[in-house]
Amino acid sequence: MSDFLVNVQRLNYTRKRIHLFVHNSVEYHTTQVDTFLAKYGFQYASQQVVHSSINPMSELEARNFALDKCRQLNCDYYLALDSVARLELPETLSVLIESNRTIVAPLLSRPGKLWSNFWAAITKDGYYARSHDYVDLVRRNRVGIWNVPHIMNAYLIEGNFIRESLEGNTKLNLSYYDKDFARKPILTFTHQLRNSNVFQYMINTHEFGHLVDPTSYNLSNTHPDFYQLIDNMQDWERHYLHEDYYQLLDDNSTTEQPCQDVFWFPLVSDLFCTHLIEIMEAFGQWSSGTNHDPRIEGGYESVPTRDIHMRQVGLQEMWLAFLREYVMPVQLKEFIGYEHDPPRAELAFVVRYNPAEQPSLKPHHDSSTYTLNIALNTPNVDYEGGGCRFARYNCSVTESRKGWALMHPGRLTHYHEGLPVTKGTRYIMVSFVDP
Fold first, then answer.
1. Is 426 a catalytic residue?
2. What are the tens digits of pLDDT across the range 310-327?
């Protein structure tokens, strides 16, 4: 929701000529919407928000209300946006106006997929049908302004058309409701347009942005955006991948080695670290730190820590995708010749060290081909002491960098220990890759 609102605010158009109406049907987003309006609402000609949890209003009622609001304001244009639409091109509104169409939508699709905000053909009963040119239009192999039978999620309507329709000056009853066509409001809306021979257009002359996929967004999760790597990778990266990560993959870049064959590099953002800690603390079921561990096969842990497994908080599949997308490229660059694909990790977990529970970890080998160890908070700020010592090389890494990862061989060569935390709480995220 925050990303959606930021994109609205970044539209390159005089804000004092824009009236905002926001219909929020999900209570979870109330704070985000109110925060946005408190920060930016005064910049607009007017603002109005309806939270359905406070003032019940259905989607159908809200959409019809917005149309009538446009009529009352004598508006020039009405821009309808659903929160799944990411208008990343600031000039989008100007481009739509300049297209000089009564109803026009910017092409938006889910990254890497063919799901978009328009249909190029429909069945006789008014549902989606694949046209011969749909793929070319979505992939922008053919660009232009196209007459299509259905648009949704983001579209612009001329104000004169709205007023003429709502005031009875045309045969069209412009509405998201039809007693004889009881379907989703937007399907009803475009059905009436087609029946009245009112053309709808899709424009794909620019890269306007994309659609997010909301199907797996689970509000019961702590920080549900954190779980969206697989379904919404582009948006997830923007928030959770370290801003310097891709520089690391440059052929001319050199990865730091604080110890022999220990690679140290930026991997995740501060927000990733903060959210992962908060997810684990909200879950709260830290292991006992004893050898008895019913979560693993055999129920015995030879080198126990106070930890929570990613599997326990529903993040195991996401973490495997993370290893494949962001860790494997570093693996291929630094561990030359080791090309196991894809990386596997039966154990991926967040460890909590503090003097009152478990301050350190005895020397041990990891059950992995290589281990990934991500620092989730900052020494001398969040805790004192701590770090990792590699015994064979008598080399220690103590000045951890939040969001940076240590990647080192697991078995045989890199016998290591966790140095004592003397104050505060240290969090690290550990993954045993290819056990």
1. yes
2. 999 999 999 999 999 999
> Could you tell me how far CA 74 lies from the centroid of its own chain?
37
Average the pLDDT over 127-151 and give the result: 95
Residue of 63, 101, 110, 426 marked active site: 426
Amino acid at 215: T
β-pair type (404-409, 370-375): antiparallel
Which pLDDT band holds residue 126 (cuts at 50, 70, 90)? confident
CA distances from 411 to 11, 197, 362, 427 (A): 53, 71, 16, 23
The answer to whether 22 and 33 are in contact (CB under 8 A) is yes
As a whole number of angstroms, the distance between CA 399 and CA 380 comes to 9
Q: And the tokens for 209?
A: 């942005």
Closest CA to 135 of 111, 116, 150, 114: 114
If we measure between CA atoms, which residue out of 6, 212, 231, 11 comes closest to residue 108? 212
Task: Quote the CA–CA distance of 335 and 407 in Å, as a whole number.
Answer: 10
pLDDT, tens digit (0-9, with 9 covering 90-100), for 413-427? 999 999 999 999 999
pTM of the model: 0.92
Please state whether beta strands 256-259 and 118-119 pair in parallel, antiparallel, or not at all (unpaired): unpaired
Per the DSSP assignment, residues forming a β-bridge with 404 are: 266
Q: Which amino acid does the sequence have at 409?
A: P
Phi and psi angles of residue 27, each rounded to the nearest 5 degrees, phi first: -60, -35
Q: Is the pLDDT of residue 343 over 80?
A: yes
Q: Quick one: angle between helices 2-9 and 30-40, nearest 10? A: 20
Encoded tokens for 277: 């800690």
How far is Cα 320 from Cα 78, in angstroms, rounded to an integer?
Answer: 44
For residue 47, list its beta bridge partners. 20
CA 279 vs. chain centroid, Å, equals: 16
Judge whether 217 and 228 are in contact, CB under 8 Å.
yes
Amino acid at 9: Q
Query: Which amino acid is located at 200 in the chain?
Result: Q
Please report the domains of the chain, with CATH numbers, ordered by start residue: 2-211 (3.90.550.10), 224-433 (2.60.120.620)
Burial degree of 109 (CB within 10 A; 0-12, 13-18, 19+): buried
What is the spatial distance between Cα 299 and Cα 293, in angstroms, rounded to a whole number? Answer: 5
Cα–Cα distance for residue pair 418/293, rounded to 1 Å: 20
Question: Over the range 316-346, which residues count as b (16 or more CB within 10 Å of their CB) and which as e?
Answer: bebbbebbebbbbebbebbbeeeeeeebebb
